Amino acid sequence: LAAPGLIGVQKKPEDPEKKRMADKPRGPRPPVEQHTLYVYGIPRDIEQTKLEADIEALFAKFGQVRSKTVKQGFCFVDFAEKAGLENALAAAAEEKVILGGEKLKCQRKEDKAAPKKPVNGAPVRK
Question: Which of 81, 91, 97, 116 is disulfide-compatible with 104, CB 3.0–4.6 A?
């Protein structure tokens, strides 16, 4: 006889993908190394879609661009490898990074410091 309330209930077959995933260690993923360049001094008179394409083409000369975030007057360019970042910084130091007739200023994006943890439950002062 079946247990009360379980009439007609069948056990699902085990999903091999879930079993494989359960065997993997859990925890935070290792951080992806960032090679991000902060670029400023971008002319504001360039249309946004053209600007994004121009930024991609300009910085692809220095290395593979993993991603970019383009805003009004500045952008962030993340390179897949450190060499791309270093090449772009060297070119900027020689004032060879030019867009729309303007020499762009570039610097390595600084990571924000990790927030401080409270000690003995005391609030963190800023």
Answer: 97
Report how far residue 43's alpha carbon sits from residue 27's, in angstroms, rounded to the nearest whole number.
44
Q: Are 41 and 114 in contact (CB under 8 A)?
A: no
Pair 65, 59: CB distance under 8 Å: yes
* Nearest one of 45, 37, 49 to 101, comparing CA atoms: 45
Over residues 39-70, the pLDDT tens digits come to 999 999 999 999 999 999 999 999 999 999 99
What are the pLDDT digits (tens) for 99-111?
999 999 999 998 6
Q: How many CB atoms lie within 10 A of CB 117?
A: 6
Model confidence, pTM = 0.64
What's the distance, CA 51 to chain centroid?
Answer: 20
